[in-house]
Design goal:
The protein has 97 residues and is mainly α. It has a domain of 56 residues. Helices cover 55% and strands 0% of the residues. The chain contains five helices and no strands. Helix 1 packs antiparallel against helix 2.
Length: 97
């Protein structure tokens, strides 16, 4: 996963979200949010898109500490999309068997 992979047939809102997910300013967040967005964006509901846009307004370092569990997730960001991103990056077993 080296960078943004264009997804065919995205509407303008989804293209904007994909660009923002891959151009965060902190490479770790590019990989975490960008990887999730590339894999899941086309299937997200309007509510999930709203929540994702809200989450992406937060500071990268804050999102990173919430995803790593270093700092508890604040209530205003405790939305299903955050848990979907977290589950996407949580592996219970090796991913390359």
């Amino acid at each position: 996963m080296s960078g943004m992979q264009p997804i065919a047939n995205l509407d303008a809102r989804r293209r904007r979200i994909q660009f923002r997910a891959w151009h965060r300013g902190m490479r770790e967040m590019d990989l975490l949010l960008g990887g999730f967005v590339d894999a899941q964006l086309s299937g997200l509901s309007d509510t999930e898109l709203d929540d994702l846009e809200y989450l992406m307004e937060a500071i990268d370092r804050d999102i990173f500490t919430w995803l790593t569990g270093e700092v508890p997730l604040p209530g205003e960001y405790d939305r299903p999309i955050f848990h979907k991103i977290l589950a996407f990056h949580t592996h219970q077993s090796p991913i390359h068997l």
